[in-house]
Every structure is written in structure tokens, then in C-alpha cells.
């Protein structure tokens, strides 16, 4: 006996009730449960849909779907940073390297003119404002997208939450306050390199990736255009 | 049922080996195939299978395909080019491991 479309929808609901929010993770679990329920029915045809579902769900253990969700999140985090790294590397190829060199030189010259501490703190505050504004706007966009499609994708969540990197960037901004008033020439070069990388990183995660969201989701999920 | 702990470290190799033999497989199919091959001795749990599949996918060893089957979407896994290479080296590692274990557990066997 095969499951009906209604029962499949019931299974989607069931995964949502068990804290699986994202459609991509739900889909894999729904197919698994459906296969197992059909298998259980072959051996015990008298069981109701709910009874068979309970037996099947118990096989996931005491943590239910949590382990699967956690593993998926971890795997996608790896993919996310691979994507970021791929774009980051492009900024060292021609012609993008011109942008990178310009940022570096602008920072280097600024450090010659302004006191290091002031500059670093201002950059920290500026970055925080940019990230904060982008996060606010992206959050709004995320909600609109969810309203339209009624589906959340785990990778989409990752991109719109800037890969959870806010903590890391915050850490930098907080340490900025500890920097000395003036720094040596070598320190200026090193700081300029670090800040250039940080600017590129912020630009990639807050602007480039979210703007390519459709393309990214199509690549990540073969089912994206099917549903 | 055997000691599942002993099998745990080999889960990725098992998955890769199965996918080497069959072009593409979905999660449930893998659990059933392993049960069938080992006559019920090895039972891959759901909580272990999907994390392993997702990890292999993130490492670029597996690729995914989705098809509509029986009113629902089914996610198939298949080996990438890198995955095929990795399978060969993992299987070689596994054989080496088995030989080593054999010589410890049953030294007479290796002398014969």
C-alpha cells in the first residue's frame, strides 16, 4: 500500500511539529518515513497510518530528528564558507585584484595620516553600522520570501543570517578599542592587510551572497525549481 | 545483532561502496540494502545515516538528484568524480585494517 498525497502532507506537518523548520530537511525525512511506513504496512497491514508513523519515528531515537537537523546544519556551514572562500579568492585575480589593491592602499595612506586607534575604531563602528543595516534589511527580505513561497530553506537561512559570522566580526570590533594610538610601519602594513580582508569578507557575506540567492539555491537544491 | 560500535567507523566506507556498485541510491534504500547484505546483522540507524550522507555531500564526494516518486520527492545520492577516487582509497584502507585486525585476533591464520 502506498501513502496518499494527504498522508504525505501529514508527514510534512509531523516533521514541523518535531522542530524541523526547513523544507529541504523535511523532504528527505518525509520520504524516509513514508518508505518505512509502507514497509511496516507490508508486515503489519492492519496498523493505522498514525500507528505505523509512531513506530517509524521511534527508530530515530530519543533525540528524534535533532541529530539529522544538526548534521545538516553543520554540513551546510561547511558549504557556505567554501562558497565565501571561492569568491574571496576571485578578489586576487585580474581584474578584481585592482579593487583589493585600492582598498589596501587607501587604508595604508589613511594610517599615515590619522592616528591608528581612531581609524580602527571608526572602521569598527562603520562596519557595525553597515552589517546591522544589512542584517535588518535581509531579515525583512527573508520574511517576504517566506510569505510568498511558504517554504524555508536551510541554506537560504544561512545566507540571510550572514553565515552566523556576526559574533566573529563583533569580536574584531571590540578588540579594535584595544589598539594603540599609533603603530609602526610594519604594523600598518599588517593591519591594512587584515582590514582589507575583513572588508572583502563583509562585502561578500552581506552583499554578494544575498544578491545571488536564487542562483545559490538552484545550485544547492535540485528540487528548488520543482516545488 | 552484532556490536554496532565496531561498525560505526566504517559507515562512510559502506555508503561509498554501495554507491560505487549502484549508480544512485536514496537514504532508505541504503539502510535496507545493508540489512539485506548483512542478513540483518548490521542495522544502520537513521540518526547515523543522514549525518554521514550530509557530511560526504559537503565534502564534495557525493552529489544529489531529486525525483518525484509516489506523490513525494526523493533525494538520490551518487558519487562525484572525487567520490569515486575516495572510495578506492577508503576500501584499500579498510582491507588493510581487516588484515591488521586478523593478524592480531587470529595470528595463527596469518602463519598458515
TrEMBL record, chain A:
Superkingdom, taxonomy of origin: Bacteria
Keywords: Membrane, Transmembrane, Transmembrane helix
Residue ranges crossing the lipid bilayer per the database entry: 91-111, 117-137, 158-177, 183-209
Keyword Membrane: yes
Protein name: Uncharacterized protein
From TrEMBL, chain B:
Domain Transcription regulator PadR N-terminal intervals: 15-87
Protein name (record): Transcriptional regulator, PadR family
InterPro entries given in the database record: Metal_resp_DNA-bind_regulator, Tscrpt_reg_PadR_N, WH-like_DNA-bd_sf, WH_DNA-bd_sf
Amino acid at each position: 500500500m502506498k501513502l496518499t498525497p494527504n498522508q504525505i502532507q501529514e508527514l510534512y506537518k509531523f516533521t514541523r511539529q518535531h522542530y524541523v523548520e526547513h523544507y529541504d530537511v523535511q523532504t528527505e525525512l518525509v520520504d524516509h518515513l513514508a518508505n518505512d511506513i509502507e514497509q511496516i504496512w507490508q508486515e503489519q497491514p492492519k496498523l493505522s497510518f498514525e500507528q505505523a508513523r509512531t513506530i517509524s519515528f521511534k527508530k530515530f531515537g530519543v533525540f528524534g530528528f535533532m541529530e539529522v537537523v544538526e548534521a545538516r546544519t553543520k554540513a551546510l556551514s561547511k558549504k557556505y564558507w567554501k562558497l565565501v572562500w571561492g569568491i574571496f579568492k576571485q578578489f586576487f585575480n585580474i581584474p578584481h585584484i585592482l579593487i583589493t589593491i585600492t582598498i589596501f592602499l587607501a587604508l595604508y595612506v589613511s594610517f599615515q595620516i590619522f592616528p591608528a586607534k581612531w581609524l580602527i575604531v571608526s572602521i569598527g563602528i562603520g562596519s557595525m553600522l553597515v552589517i546591522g543595516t544589512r542584517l535588518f534589511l535581509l531579515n525583512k527580505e527573508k520574511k517576504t520570501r517566506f510569505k510568498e513561497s511558504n517554504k524555508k530553506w536551510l541554506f537560504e537561512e544561512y545566507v540571510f543570517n550572514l553565515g552566523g559570522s556576526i559574533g566573529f566580526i563583533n569580536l574584531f570590533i571590540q578588540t579594535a578599542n584595544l589598539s594603540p594610538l599609533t603603530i609602526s610601519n610594519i604594523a600598518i602594513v599588517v593591519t591594512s592587510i587584515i582590514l582589507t580582508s575583513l572588508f572583502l569578507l563583509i562585502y561578500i557575506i552581506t552583499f554578494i551572497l544575498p544578491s545571488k540567492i536564487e542562483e545559490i539555491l538552484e545550485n544547492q537544491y535540485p528540487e528548488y525549481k520543482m516545488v | 545483532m552484532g556490536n554496532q560500535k565496531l561498525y560505526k567507523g566504517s559507515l562512510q566506507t559502506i555508503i561509498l561502496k554501495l554507491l560505487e556498485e549502484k549508480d544512485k541510491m536514496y537514504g532508505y534504500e541504503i539502510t535496507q540494502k545493508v540489512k539485506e547484505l548483512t542478513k540483518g546483522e548490521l542495522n544502520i540507524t537513521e540518526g547515523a545515516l543522514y549525518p554521514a550522507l550530509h557530511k560526504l555531500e559537503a565534502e564534495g564526494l557525493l552529489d544529489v538528484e531529486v525525483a518525484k516518486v509516489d506523490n513525494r520527492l526523493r533525494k538520490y545520492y551518487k558519487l562525484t568524480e572525487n567520490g569515486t577516487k575516495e572510495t578506492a582509497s577508503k576500501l584499500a584502507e579498510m582491507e588493510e585494517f581487516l588484515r591488521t585486525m586478523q593478524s592480531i585476533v587470529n595470528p595463527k591464520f596469518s602463519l598458515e
